[in-house]
Design goal:
By secondary structure, the protein is an alpha+beta fold. Helix content is 53%, strand content 12%. The chain contains nine helices and six strands. The protein has a four-stranded mixed beta sheet. Strand 1, helix 1 and strand 2 form a beta-alpha-beta unit. The longest helix is centred in the N-terminal third of the chain and has 17 residues. It is globular, with a radius of gyration of 17 Å.
């Protein structure tokens, strides 16, 4: 594989289980192919109108997609199995809730200025899906930042004064204008769009194809 880092832009929301599954699949493919890379996360809100108190997960999926509880349970079981194979622990439980992520994206923007966006993004996925923490609670978000070594007080200040609100809105608008309507959406080498969680084998094939195009 070339030593030139492959730029990977990932548009995602931390409420999206397929985003962490897709990332883990991609990460495994990157490791198996020895691809040098740099990852850039970008904001997308699956539910921008979600109220601060959030919504029960089953109710939300039923309202948004028309899925029955049985269908949702089947989907959760599948995601749990996929996650386990990739080293990610989904811990669904009765009362699991979806939350508003606008402030989470603001904190990620702040972390990016310190070179820690990737770490915070992964910590948020675990906080939501494994630990079932409320990512619409500013104190919880600040705690997560502190847990990975960022300044908790500054994190809370960032969320309190909403200093990066416009940055997030501008970034979200940009990706919507690029035609991104769902996540995960990956742009490889600024040219090739890959949507959804493709699986380790498919990502591996895509990486090999990209390498061949460079030679």
């Amino acid at each position: 594989m070339t030593t030139e880092p492959l730029r990977i832009d990932i548009v995602s929301d931390v409420m999206c289980p397929w985003c962490i599954i897709g990332y883990r699949q991609l990460a495994k493919a990157l490791q198996e192919t020895g691809t040098t890379h740099e990852i850039h996360w970008h904001p997308f809100e699956l539910n921008p109108e979600m109220p601060p108190e959030g919504q029960d997960g089953f109710e939300h999926i039923a309202e948004k997609y028309g899925s029955t509880r049985a269908q949702s349970e089947e989907s959760r079981a599948r995601m749990t199995e996929l996650g386990a194979d990739l080293g990610f622990d989904f811990r669904w439980a009765e009362g699991f809730r979806m939350h508003n992520t606008f402030n989470a994206h603001q904190l990620l923007h702040w972390a990016d200025e310190q070179g820690r966006k990737h770490d915070l993004k992964l910590a948020m996925f675990s906080a939501h899906f494994t630990d079932r923490r409320n990512l619409s609670d500013n104190a919880v978000l600040a705690d997560i930042a502190g847990e990975i070594g960022l300044d908790r007080d500054e994190a809370l200040a960032v969320l309190t004064d909403q200093r990066y609100a416009q940055n997030v809105r501008d970034a979200e608008k940009f990706w919507l204008q690029q035609g991104i309507q769902g996540v995960p959406a990956l742009v490889l080498d600024r040219k090739y769009l890959v949507t959804g969680a493709q699986g380790v084998d498919n990502y591996t094939n895509i990486l090999h194809e990209l390498e061949q195009k460079k030679t």
